[in-house]
Write a structure and sequence with these properties.
Distance between the termini of chain B: 41 Å
Number of strands of chain A: 10
CATH topology of the domain at 164-342 in chain A: Immunoglobulin-like
CATH architecture of the domain at 164-342 in chain A: Sandwich
Radius of gyration of chain B: 26 Å
GO molecular function (chain A): copper ion binding; cytochrome-c oxidase activity
Structural class of chain A: alpha+beta
Number of helices of chain B: 17
Structural class of chain B: mainly alpha
Helix content of chain B: 55-70%
EC number (chain A): 7.1.1.9
Largest interface: A-B, 114 and 117 residues
Strand order of the largest sheet of chain B: 1-2
Catalytic activity (chain A): 4 Fe(II)-[cytochrome c] + O2 + 8 H(+)(in) = 4 Fe(III)-[cytochrome c] + 2 H2O + 4 H(+)(out)
Largest sheet of chain A: 5 strands, mixed
CATH topology of chain B: Cytochrome C Oxidase, Chain A
Cofactor (chain A): Cu cation
Oligomer: heterodimer
Number of helices of chain A: 9
Number of strands of chain B: 2
Radius of gyration of chain A: 31 Å
Order of helices and strands of chain B: HHHHHHHHEEHHHHHHHHH
Number of domains of chain B: 1
Order of helices and strands of chain A: HHHHHEEEEEEEEHEEHHH
Strand order of the largest sheet of chain A: 3-2-1-5-8
CATH class of the domain at 164-342 in chain A: Mainly Beta
InterPro entries (chain A): CcO_II, CcO_II-like_C, Cupredoxin, Cyt_c_oxidase_su2_TM_dom, Cyt_c_oxidase_su2_TM_sf
Chain lengths: ~350, ~625
């Protein structure tokens, strides 16, 4: 019944609109306004541009200021502070250009709306002006590019020697984490070794892999360089840690990396944001299939001492599953056995 | 069908040397008339715009109202709505993929370039038709076949391609990774192959026609900016589409013939694949070698149309005609050397990232010049707000808003955070999506009288413009905030993450705005089809414009001009020239006929012009007598 009534209502509204449309067309024919170069609508449109300029401008400023703390994620890495400042510098520069050009773009239609009494000025070119507005943007952009380039070079420079290595591997649809263990060297891996018990495909015949250990969360120390070694097992993924201002694709067959220095522990961030449940997160930003939107991993930033303690307490792959040690060569076997007895 | 031939016979054709016998099939289906082909492109483009728009509404429903019971969509979507009335997450990805593919290729490439390059190139340069009408016809029909295949793929049980419109392997190569990479992806690749062939044929035709078939006096320095834009667009397409074809071909090999161009070290579905040594990044390089120029393929025609519409309706010459051409040329060349800015965080060598950052920000300069020139054209003009003019001003606004955010994204250091977030979505939907779309709509409003001999209703046009203009900003402006907050693209829902577990209100707002904006397009559709039959009859030159197309009869027949093709004596932007009586002087008016308004350097050209005209006359006379 309601469906029927709604249908009738919609039909009525459409027929009214239709009538209004026909009547205004006929009226305009009678008035001869269709013969005029610019009808009364010209003025209305000109005014609407001003209305849009004011309305849109107010809305933009109001919302940008009101929501600032919401959309501006707190930053928790050294390079993030730099890229954020680059971002806001760019925002300042482009914001000014945005405002000026839009004010002109919407005021001109009002100011220079058609009048029969006036004639447009014939102003086909002015080389001086063209040169000015080629050179000025070029200089401004050069400034932005160079500062961006300096930051980019620093961020992508090789990681410091003392960086803590963490391997992050993406697969459909989760992340797995591997630490290099006591020797600080990640063991080899081969995708053909992947199995139900060895999801990383770690090659345990490599001595370095014997003490490698997994972790359900990414634990990293505050204030010390951390190197993410990133790889993917099946399709492209992308490691995105928004608070760290960190993003790097995970590519099957081509390991990638990203190093950074976290500046705030999770606890400190909980205090800063006033949210006792706050967690640093990793999300996937490269489309990877059905579960693309659910590849979450938590990063826990702790004080360096706590990190060392936590690190020493972890159990290696082999300790968790001694069966993995079957392929271990003789010389590495001792290390493995030591590990096994240590627990 | 051919029995309709007599009824459809067009009297205008009788003027030609050889008589055409158009029946229904040759006139409306397998037409070789560039104007009809243009209309075919336009209507097909509109059909695809509706489909593409509808798909976006479906996924906006999911994003804006994640708790909504979508059972009511089951009649259309069937099994893609599950028992609980929820949209299937895989199909969500298919929706965004097909929305992107359709909008970029079918609507803004074929629908825009296909329509206006075909329609305007012969009319504005003074040619009877395209260089090869037959190839032009093939071009449309290849596009049509491509569309049919893509359309069929929407209805597959495993769904259409779903790896994003960029179809990055390995996701797009492995059926195990996502069901859409099965038959759906195969059809995607086949459809794109037809599409590439179609756009190459079109492009070759546009280029040849512009170079060879310009009428007497129509030098490159007298071409309207529309033609410059179409010409350079075709050049870009001709050079970059083959690379997409190469990328697609290698992908076909990887998918079907066991090669490893893009595949390496993959363990999926419980087994390790034999492929090694390939690189997914190679595909990205190849794809973006087309993908970035593609942005300009959709944008340049829109900018060309805008230049023409703004100049005409400001009653002022376009400011900096030469600077505009140089900017277009600059954009054309630079568009080929910026592709890797889509790949700053793909794992590509960071040094390459630096190079591409520099090159990318250089391309902002000619774009900025164009904006300033548009503004100066409006300055001290005598502005008439036809719907086309409104949409052109809207385009400039989008071009500024979206262009400026490009400066953030082109900066690799800033891009680390913004890459693949909604900031990018906001950026390209404004600068290439909406701007090009507005250019296309402006073109339809402006050249409708030439296409169908009738006027579109202006008032409906105003309503259409204001709802769409405000609507587009309401949809895409909020996405900047969401993007700065780090919301990733192509997410079915954000509730899994604490950092993105907000802005449900804003997303709802965006979705509502999108639905309203989409709804407003039906005003345009009504206006279009109604005016085609019942609109007011157009006059010969309704916008009092200078370019050649307005010297043809109101409804030009096959061959465009009944008699001789008019010669051209001046540039197309003599609006409001001091001394002239009217505020426009068409290109066909000789300088010698307007001594009162000629500029000093033009006065000197008059002598040359008179000599040429004298010679011409002698030739004509001798031709007459020899008959």
């Amino acid at each position: 019944m309601y469906g029927f009534l709604i249908g009738v209502g919609v039909l009525l509204i459409f027929s009214i609109i239709w009538m209004v449309y026909r009547i205004q067309t006929l009226v305009s024919v009678v008035k001869g306004s269709d013969k005029k170069i610019a009808s009364g609508s010209n003025k209305v449109n000109a005014i609407l541009f001003i209305v849009f300029l004011l309305g849109g401008g107010i809305l933009m400023f109001w919302y940008s200021i009101k929501e600032f703390d919401n959309y501006q994620l707190p930053v928790a890495s050294e390079h993030g502070v730099i890229t954020d400042s680059l971002f806001w510098w760019s925002m300042g520069v482009t914001g000014i250009v945005f405002l000026i050009t839009h004010i002109l773009l919407f005021i001109f239609p009002y100011k220079y709306q058609y009048s029969e009494k006036r004639k447009a000025s014939f102003y086909p070119d002015n080389n001086k002006l063209e040169i000015i507005w080629t050179v000025v943007p070029a200089i401004v952009l050069a400034g932005l590019v160079i500062s961006g380039w300096v930051a980019w070079s620093d961020i992508t420079a090789p990681a410091p020697e003392n960086a803590h290595t963490v391997e992050i591997m993406g697969y459909q649809f989760a992340w797995e984490v591997r630490y290099p263990g006591k020797d600080q060297v990640l063991g080899d891996y081969d995708y053909r070794l992947i199995s139900a018990t060895n999801s990383h495909g770690v090659d345990f015949s490599d001595k370095n892999s014997v003490d490698d250990f997994p972790s359900p969360v990414v634990v990293i120390p505050k204030g010390e360089p951390v190197l993410f070694k990133i790889r993917a097992r099946d399709v492209l993924h992308s490691v995105f840690a928004p608070h760290m201002r960190l993003k790097m694709d995970a590519v099957p067959g081509m390991p990638t990396r990203f190093w950074f220095v976290p500046t705030k522990t999770t606890a400190e961030m909980r205090e800063e944001t006033g949210n006792p449940d706050f967690n640093y997160e990793i999300a996937c930003t490269e489309i990877c299939g059905r579960g693309h939107f659910s590849m979450r991993k938590v990063i826990e930033v702790v004080e360096p001492e706590a990190y060392q303690k936590w690190y020493a307490e972890q159990r290696s792959f082999i300790q968790m599953n001694p069966a993995l040690a079957t392929g271990v060569p003789a010389d590495a076997k001792e290390v493995a056995e030591v590990q096994l007895t240590e627990k | 069908m051919s029995t309709a031939s007599v009824a459809n016979h067009d009297a205008a054709h009788d003027h030609h040397d050889h008589e055409h016998h158009d029946n229904f099939v040759t006139k409306y289906i397998f037409s070789q008339d560039h104007k009809m082909i243009a209309k075919q492109y336009l209507v097909t483009g509109m059909f695809w715009a509706l489909i593409g728009g509808l798909l976006s509404i479906l996924f906006r429903l999911q994003l804006g109202f994640p708790d909504m019971d979508m059972s009511f969509l089951r009649p259309i979507l069937g099994g893609w709505i599950d028992e609980a009335g929820k949209l299937d997450p895989t199909f969500y990805l298919a929706l965004v993929t097909m929305h992107g593919t359709i909008m970029v290729f079918f609507v803004l490439t074929a629908g825009l370039s296909g329509t206006f390059s075909n329609f305007l190139i012969p009319l504005q340069i003074g040619a009877r038709d395209m260089a090869s009408g037959f190839m032009n016809m093939i071009s449309y029909w290849l596009f049509f076949i491509s569309g049919v295949i893509m359309f069929i793929s929407l209805f597959l049980k495993t769904g259409p391609a779903a790896g994003g419109w960029v179809v990055y392997p390995p996701l797009s190569a492995l059926e195990q990774a996502i069901p859409g990479s099965g038959l759906g992806m195969t059809l995607w690749l086949v459809a794109m192959t037809f599409f590439i062939a179609s756009s190459l044929m079109g492009g070759i035709n546009y280029i040849t026609t512009v170079i060879n078939l310009r009428t007497k006096g129509m030098s490159f320095s007298k071409l309207p900016l529309t033609i410059w834009a179409f010409f350079l667009t075709a050049v870009i397409g001709l050079l970059s589409f083959p690379v997409l074809f190469a990328a697609a071909l290698l992908l076909v090999f990887d998918r079907s013939f066991g090669t490893s161009f893009y595949l390496s070290d993959i363990y999926i579905g419980g087994e390790a694949l034999p492929n090694t040594g390939g690189s997914p990044v190679l595909y990205q390089h190849l794809f973006w070698f087309l993908g970035h120029p593609e942005v300009y393929i959709v944008l340049l025609p829109a900018l060309g149309i805008t230049s023409e519409v703004i100049a005409t309706n400001s009653r002022k010459p376009i400011f900096g005609y030469k600077a505009m051409i140089i900017s277009l040329l600059g954009i054309t060349v630079l568009s080929f050397v910026v592709w890797a800015h889509h790949m700053f965080v793909s794992g590509m060598n960071p040094f390459l990232g630096s190079i591409f950052m520099f090159l990318t920000l250089i391309i902002a300069v000619p774009s900025a010049v164009k904006v300033f020139n548009y503004l100066t054209t409006l300055w001290r003009g005598n502005l008439i707000f036809t719907p086309a003019m409104l949409f052109s001003i809207g385009l400039v606004s989008f071009f500024i808003s979206g262009g400026l955010t490009g400066i953030f994204l082109g900066n690799s250091a800033i891009d680390i955070q913004l890459h693949d977030t909604y900031f990018v979505v906001a950026h390209f939907h404004l600068v290439m999506g909406s701007a090009s779309f507005f250019g296309m709509i402006a073109g339809v409003y402006h050249w409708f009288p030439k296409m169908f001999g009738r006027m579109m209703d202006a008032k409906l046009g105003y309503v259409h413009f204001w709802i769409t203009f405000v609507g587009v900003y309401m949809v895409f402006f909020p996405m900047h905030y969401i993007g700065i907050a780090g919301f990733p693209r192509r997410y079915y829902s954000w509730t899994n993450f604490e950092f993105a577990n907000m802005y449900t209100d804003l997303n709802m707002f965006v979705s509502v705005a999108a639905i309203i904006t989409f709804g407003a397009q039906f005003i345009f559709l009504f206006n279009f089809f109604y005016s085609m039959y019942r609109g007011r009859k157009a006059s010969e030159n309704p916008w009092r414009s200078n370019t050649l197309e307005w010297t043809t009869p109101i409804e030009p027949g096959h061959g465009n001009w009944p008699g001789e093709i008019p010669a051209v004596y001046r540039w197309p932007y003599d609006y409001s020239k001091p001394g002239a009586e009217e505020d426009f002087i068409p290109q066909t008016v000789p300088l010698s006929a307007t001594p009162e308004s000629n500029l000093p350097h033009e006065q000197e050209l008059v002598k040359v012009e008179l000599e040429i005209m004298k010679e011409e006359e002698e030739v004509l006379v001798s031709n007459e007598t020899s008959h």
